[in-house]
Hints:
By secondary structure, this protein is α/β, with parallel strands linked by helices. It has 2 domains: about 5-90 and about 170-180, D-Maltodextrin-Binding Protein, domain 2 (3-Layer(aba) Sandwich), CATH 3.40.190; about 90-170, Periplasmic binding protein-like II (D-Maltodextrin-Binding Protein, domain 2). It contains 5 helices and 10 strands. Strand 1 (about 5), helix 1 (about 15-25) and strand 2 (about 30-35) form a beta-alpha-beta unit. The two termini are about 15 Å apart.
Amino acid sequence: MVTIHTLGPKETDSNLVASKLEAEDPNYQGLSIQLHFDFATIYANLDKYQGDYFLVPVGYQGPAGDTWTSQHYANWQKLSIQKTWASPTMEMLLVENSEQKNGKAVSHKTTTALLKDFADRKQITLAIDYVPAKPVAANCFLNGDYQYAIFSQNAEADLKATHHIMERFQPEMIWCLYQIK
């Protein structure tokens, strides 16, 4: 069966966008969606997924400093753009745990600018740990080890009384759907 490969877990923007694409675009209905731990794993295994699709945001920033642009050029012979479009992300929250005063933050790499802007305005220094997806950042924050985090609002129901929403964001993202050659 032809599959759309994208970032998991199921709470990610990537899964939401893939599900919406599969449900609403007749060209992609009936496809399965396979969620991966990170985009780097998908890029590393393109040869195994020939004929399938790969959904990635153009805001992709990988663990080795790679970006959507660098991967697009590195894999131009393996990937063919089928569709691009803009869609708002899920609302994101910048949260603080008032019981934690360690100056540590957890985030997906793509939200670094939001964290740094907040730190500059508050005149604080943050030690930022990066994770492959915003739902992972939410889990790390909810475990209590971090003072700050940015993650999607679908984890808002899990916040405790000591967790305070400092800011909300909902930028648009451009999405790229490739067919894997």
